[in-house]
Amino acid sequence: MNSRLEDIKALFYFMVRLFRSKLIIYVVISRNQLEMHNLKTGQTIKLRSEVPFSTNRLLIANNMVAENLGKQIMNKICGRDLKLSPVFMIIHPLEVGFDDVSPVEKMIYNDFGTILGAREVIIEESLEKLNKESLVRIKDKYS
């Protein structure tokens, strides 16, 4: 009986997401720190992990720690919109010395975004944080 109720609930959320606008989240990943911007509400949260998730070679080396921190921020920044809206995530690895993003790192960032609830993930590879104008253009392009 519980499984049937869960199936009905999942179907309900799926149907609601079909008609809701996308929730666009811009994520800046730096050494042991995540910063998330909800482009719909303008809210920003930046948290540093007490337990390191980065190493000298990877920004996300311990995915469990990074995912837990990411989920914590997503719940704060999105609230109930997280379940009711399709999430589109722009992940921007931004740290000195991490200029080129390898295919393996792209896979890690894509998995990270998907686990946090994103339906679509874009990896931003520019060397500077995106300004408000760039974020507005992205929001308009993908909304």
From TrEMBL:
This is Uncharacterized protein.
